[in-house]
């Protein structure tokens, strides 16, 4: 049986259309009709691949960067697009509050994300689907929606070029705005955009996302990923990211260590949280951590298990959530009360940032209601154990193929409870956003 659900797709570009487009457009997109001679800003980062310490990864910048990546470049360019009217609504005007309770779930009333769109049918029983160039993809965005190219430096020095040619042969990765933002600075990281990769994590793309988190260097700037079947609606490889100056509830949830890989990556169970999942942290290098998580994601993809990923704490902690809400929805197993909220529990909602579309739900937001919704997202304990067995086997097999040390996980019987993320001092002043909390 083919499982499908109807939902309102998020409009991420001002050029997004539901029907297929044909031929050239003449509107400055990222396809062959408009690419010749096109230039975009380029930020070339220095790769981080040093041993981590108590305070995170060893400082990878030997001298002052030519531009502050997060506050001056990414958020500065995002603000520029806001002033130019490229967004569908002003997200900074959306009501937001921290819900009273132990976890501090965050509720936002965002009615603008849902207006004037008709429901579209999505297949939710197939995590891996081939790329379809006739459907909307990120090569169809306007070049004005792209903030800059994001590439590793060729000489291991951080560089910024205000205008650089687009290297079509090597398919640059880019950072673009989401015109239906959830929060301040909401952007999309699109790896190797011209290769038109489907929504499927690979080692290279996931490491790029960790580089972006490390480059931002601020724990309030997180990246997220949704697979197909876990509320990704565009089948073109992308991560999301934004800034929100409060800890996410998931970052405060305790975790119990269950294993350590040979490369020093610690794997823990999330406990006392409505969505069951895993936390990955540590490792001798950033690439060690990235490989373990990306191999885990590849395992889920290959076994047709929908999932969401949150990259937290400047790339030092990564949360992985296998989920089943869309499957339950397609099978008619979700209550009408929850369906009426029209909330699609993807990575941000699972992390505790509840994006609500109805004023009624916002006014009645409570920890109990948030917990009730997210509990429907979670796999059962028994099913999660089966998934963990698949992941551990995949990690071991990958280590063996790479001819590393003995391909085993070191089981840890101790119960290590993680300390909640401490709120550090903000690195810059935000325009009226932080005053709401």
UniProtKB/TrEMBL annotation:
It is found in: Cytoplasm. This is GDP-L-galactose phosphorylase 2-like. It comes from Olea europaea subsp. europaea. PANTHER family: GDP-D-GLUCOSE PHOSPHORYLASE 1 (PTHR20884), GDP-L-GALACTOSE PHOSPHORYLASE 1 (PTHR20884:SF21). Belongs to the GDPGP1 family. Keywords: Cytoplasm, Guanine-nucleotide releasing factor, Hydrolase, Nucleotide-binding, Nucleotidyltransferase, Transferase. GO terms for molecular function: GDP-D-glucose phosphorylase activity; guanyl-nucleotide exchange factor activity; hydrolase activity; nucleotide binding. Coiled coil: none annotated. GO terms for biological process: glucose metabolic process. The keyword Nucleotide-binding applies. Its main location: cytoplasm. Residues 249-396 form the GDPGP1-like C-terminal domain. Residues 70-242 form the GDPGP1-like N-terminal domain. GO terms for cellular component: cytoplasm.
